[in-house]
Amino acid sequence: MKKTIPHDMIPRKTQSEIPGKKTKLQSVIPVRFIILCFLIPITVLTVVNLSCRRQQSEKHSAYSFRIPPDYLREPSDIPSFWLTSCDEVNNFLIKTVHKGQIQTVGTSAGGRQIRAVLYGSPRQGKGTTTFSGSLGFGDVRAYRGPDHDKTVYMSMAAVHGGEFEGIVGMVNLISVIETGKDLRGKEWPGITEAISEIDRLILIPITNPDGRERIPLRMELYRDTIYTVPEYLNTGGMPDGTITGWPQIKEFIPIDFSKPGFQGGYPNDAGVNIQHDNFLGKKQPETQALFNLAEREKPDLIINMHTGALYMRMDRPLGEPALHPAFDTLFKYVHSELAVNGLQETNDPAIEGNPARAATGVYNIDGAVNWHCGALSVVVESPSHAFSGNSATRKAKIESPDNLLNAQLICHQQAMRFLAKTGGRSKWLPASK
Hints:
This protein has a single domain, classed as Zn peptidases (Aminopeptidase, 3-Layer(aba) Sandwich), CATH 3.40.630. Strands 3-4-6-5-7-9-8 form a 7-stranded mixed β-sheet. The chain has a two-stranded antiparallel ribbon with strand order 1-2. Helix 2 packs parallel to helix 5, helix 5 packs across helix 13 and helix 10 crosses helix 13. The chain has 14 helices and 9 strands. It starts with about 30 loop residues before the first helix and ends in a 5-residue tail after the last helix. Helix content is about 35%, strand content about 10%. It has about 425 residues and is α/β, with parallel strands linked by helices.
């Protein structure tokens, strides 16, 4: 899945944007020379050893990641609502969540807890068959159980650790649920109303804590149309700043952590991009945790928040063809509302809400979880706070952090409205028996 704007829209850049600075050493005493020889490499590379951040596992503790120091600069005015690090999110959850329940739903390959916040009561009772069996039988209610018509909304962010927008959106969504306002103090009556009509919510702010911890930034510096740095941090690269890039990062799974450079936020500590795990073989612990959660909760709808678009876009999953009509309706709900709020390429809801515009994704975790539990699982790509589109080839608005948060919350609001109004999986596919 693309994590930057399309390559036909921006000229490819593979070299570091670090401003060079030559230092001349003239007459120096030997002691000073020795000190300078020690310091010069530090000015070229920042070495990040994250072994102490793991909770349970020392896997890869011998490996150090080398990131050009310019890539680690942060804005001086990070908004107060921009919470993205594992520590920030965990502290926020502990402080804020009172109506919901914080639950550890799994442990990452690196031994870090994967936390979800759950609202409402879970499904009661069990079905009589597997999901596959229910399709063969012609009635998904046989799999979903006696309260098959209960509506369950699930969303996850940061499957790729370098994509911060989904984390920010999820944290602020939880704030709205708990306090009625996002972290800016803005009320969202549409979200409050939609939530009141849904039976169960499952929200996972950081799905890949290993990848997120690997990037020691709360917020990346905005770099105009230069996307080299955000792509480097997400897909990895060499110590000189050369990026691995997309889709090259997907050629090798698992990634070899023993190679010099930086492996980026895509993989977990086992080197696996869980968006493209071995779903029919031995799965990563993060993937297995998601499968177990989906099997237990049987969500109707899963929104998988990523970053990598000029304007927020929803991709059609490569899953059950029978769910295409439901996806089309969901697409209209989300994209039409984004358009009228000025968060699409045009303000025309008819144009932007046309589901024929949706690209079909490849086989990934969303298709796999659909076939696992029957949920309509959808990737949503957000614009990035770290760069804009190239106005030389396509006019793109610079998205402020406020606009990015608004887009996230509108997407959640409309997705929940869609679920509430359409009634969920049992209503999308009327029983044939």
